[in-house]
User: What shape does this take?
Amino acid sequence: MKFYYALFILLFSTQVFANTTYTLQASFEGDTKSSYEYQALKLALDKTQPHYGRYKLNITNEPIPPKRYVVEANSDSLSNFIFVDSVNQSTLNQLSHANFPVMLGIIGYRVPLISTELKQRGYQVDYPRDLRNFSMVQGRGWLDTDILKDNGFTVHTGKHIEGLFYMVANERADFFPIGATQISNALDNFKHVKGLTVDDKTLLYYPLPRFFFMGKKHQQKLIRIEEGLIHAYQDGSLQTLWRQHFQQALDQIAIKQRKLFKLHNKFIEGINKEYEQYVYNPFVD
Assistant: This one.
């Protein structure tokens, strides 16, 4: 009897998930299919295909503004809309998620852009108290702004992204921390901003995991994604994909030679911390 029950459950679960369609948020930059997010999602779905069955992975016709994510995910106007976003308590309350840091936590590592004049004058940052002597630049309304303020920093904000680069280059603030993997592209995209360079000493980190999110009623579909990502992590295929996308950028900033300063992120308090075991640590091989 137990055998027939187990067989029924297996057949039922396969039927439920067979040919499930997922519609991934289109990338704002470049070809979505070449993006890490798309390839990581496809990898997770492939890893779980023997148990959950076939799937179809679509992409939205155009990028959906982040402020519309929650509405679109819960409206079902798109077939199983799925997207990657930084974790915060509001999003967790309104949506379902896979409790796995899709990008292995790399977004939480920040390297400061500074002015060339500040670099030439020289400065010392040995302890957290030294770091707090420097003012920060961030975007108005960004979660990073709130995190830095909560950690005791003076933060100057701007509305337009290009203006933030000018602010730090003209020393209206000292440091502009951006994603460790984004430094090279940022300098290339804003090379017309004179007097801009990279700090070569410090590395900031605050927990800022990015999860896959879907509408509130789709938690079961995200269990498949979570299982697939864990499977891919355990067999090393996810790390291989991750390195293909990010390792070169991290090597360019010599991430392992920097002094790490850990900050607190109160905006993710209360979430399940099991994801932390999958967060990248640059100082551990």
Q: What stands out?
A: The two ends are 49 Å apart (CA to CA). The CA atoms of residues 202 and 259 lie 5 Å apart.
